[in-house]
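Lab notebook, design round three. We kept the backbone fixed and only want residue identities now. Task for the bench partner: fill in a sequence for the structure below.
Input structure tokens:
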């Protein structure tokens, strides 16, 4: 449990591999609350074993945002949802999902929304949904281009191998025909 190790926490940002720390767990938690830790960022107490931030229960990264029908953002904290709403990146009508209970609702119907969670001050690289989605889209586009390049090379190799097999089949047929 995170509360067992309060000192010497490290945060490694997914997009830049930049490491922050050592800091107290409260600082890591504060960063999670303010949307400065995303679902791909890693945390560690020794810089050897890294764990994805949402896997640390004490960070309460329990919420997914339905950005579109087939696209989810998160998990993130309730406080981060409130910050995204304050910034206008999502609205009270944005669908969200509680990862712990699998309950779906609009942001405006969540208990923390009506309670008006305070949003603490910000620090490391704060990333909004739009910025993170744009980065993810770029990553996926680059990955797609690379996969297409690999596919073209594989198809070219297959075509050469098939031609070689046909050539060998013809030679084998010629050899068999010559022996008869």
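Proposed sequence:
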């Amino acid at each position: 449990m995170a509360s067992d190790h309060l000192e010497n926490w490290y945060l490694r940002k997914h997009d830049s591999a930049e490491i922050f720390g050592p800091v107290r767990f409260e600082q890591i938690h504060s960063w999670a609350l303010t949307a400065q830790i995303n679902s791909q960022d890693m945390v560690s107490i020794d810089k050897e074993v890294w764990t994805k931030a949402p896997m640390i229960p004490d960070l309460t990264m329990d919420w997914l945002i339905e950005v579109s029908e087939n696209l989810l953002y998160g998990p993130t904290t309730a406080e981060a949802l409130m910050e995204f709403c304050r910034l206008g990146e999502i609205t009270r009508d944005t669908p969200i999902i509680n990862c712990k209970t699998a309950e779906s609702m609009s942001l405006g119907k969540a208990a923390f929304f009506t309670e008006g969670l305070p949003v603490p001050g910000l620090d490391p690289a704060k990333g909004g949904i739009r910025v993170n989605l744009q980065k993810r889209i770029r990553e996926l586009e680059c990955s797609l281009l690379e996969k297409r390049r690999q596919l073209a090379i594989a198809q070219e190799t297959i075509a050469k191998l098939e031609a070689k097999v046909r050539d060998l089949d013809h030679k084998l047929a010629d050899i068999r025909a010559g022996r008869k």
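Keep this in mind before ordering anything: The first strand starts at residue 9 and ends at 12.
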